[in-house]
């Protein structure tokens, strides 16, 4: 009886820890790379190319909404990844520089590996039909906020060959999940 009570206590404590203390990632995720140039090919044909600017791998979590897309749009276009004209590092964003943005949809950003077989599992990624709609909405937000002729993308759902020349390299990750210190309430 004591052993069962001890086991139940341990299980309850473990469950509490998992539910309360471990963060559950439910955020739109963008891997941003500052590039000198980048391009996307599908079936051997180049469908988009930029340079210099940003190449953004865009992953959508199954629970993402337009609010996440709006947040990530502001953060992506506001990210200060370049020096200003006086040489001050990290002072200008893509809009201030007049550079281009290449977005590539990438559901694999929400991939995990199974513990036993090391096989990828993408159950946290948004399903294809709603993901395509939200991804297209994200592109629309970028174009409306910046410029239609500065935003490019790959082909949703296609096998793509992505080429890029890193500038730096500079790579950052933007997650739409609001941090606990409320930093996200005022994206700059």
Care to describe what's here?
The protein has 188 residues and is of the alpha/beta class. It has helices at 2-21, 66-78, 94-97, 128-145, and strands at 29-42, 45-50, 53-59, 100-105, 112-113, 120-121, 151-153, 161-175. The chain has one domain: 3-Layer(bba) Sandwich (D-tyrosyl-trna(Tyr) Deacylase, Chain: A). 29% of the residues lie in helices and 29% in strands. The strands form two sheets. Strands 1, 2, 3, 4, 7 and 8 form a six-stranded mixed beta sheet that branches. The longest helix has 20 residues, at 2-21. It is globular. The termini are far apart.
Oligomer: single chain
Radius of gyration, CA atoms, in whole angstroms: 20 Å
Q: Report the β-strand fraction as a percent range.
A: 25-35%
* C-alpha geometry: globular
CATH superfamily: D-tyrosyl-tRNA(Tyr) deacylase
Structural category: alpha/beta
Which residue ranges are poorly predicted, with pLDDT under 50 across at least 5 consecutive positions? 3-24, 182-188
- Roughly how much helix do the residues carry, as a percent range? 25-40%
Q: Give the N-to-C terminal Cα separation.
A: 58 Å
Average pLDDT reading: 85
């Amino acid at each position: 009886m004591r052993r069962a009570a001890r086991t139940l206590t341990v299980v309850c404590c473990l469950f509490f820890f998992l539910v309360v203390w471990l963060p559950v990632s439910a955020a739109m995720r963008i891997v941003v790379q500052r590039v000198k140039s980048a391009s996307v090919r599908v079936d051997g044909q180049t469908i988009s190319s930029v340079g210099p600017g940003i190449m953004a791998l865009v992953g959508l979590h199954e629970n993402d909404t337009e609010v996440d897309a709006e947040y990530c749009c502001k953060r992506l276009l506001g990210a200060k990844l370049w020096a200003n004209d006086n040489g001050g590092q990290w002072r200008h964003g893509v809009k201030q520089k007049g550079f281009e943005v290449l977005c590539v949809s990438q559901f694999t950003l929400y991939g995990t590996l199974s513990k036993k077989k090391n096989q990828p599992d993408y159950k946290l990624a948004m399903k294809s039909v709603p993901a395509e709609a939200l991804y297209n909405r994200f592109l629309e937000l970028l174009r409306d906020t910046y410029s239609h002729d500065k935003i490019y993308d790959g082909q949703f759902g296609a096998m793509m060959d992505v080429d890029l020349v890193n500038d730096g390299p500079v790579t950052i990750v933007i997650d739409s999940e609001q941090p606990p210190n409320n930093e996200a309430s005022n994206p700059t």
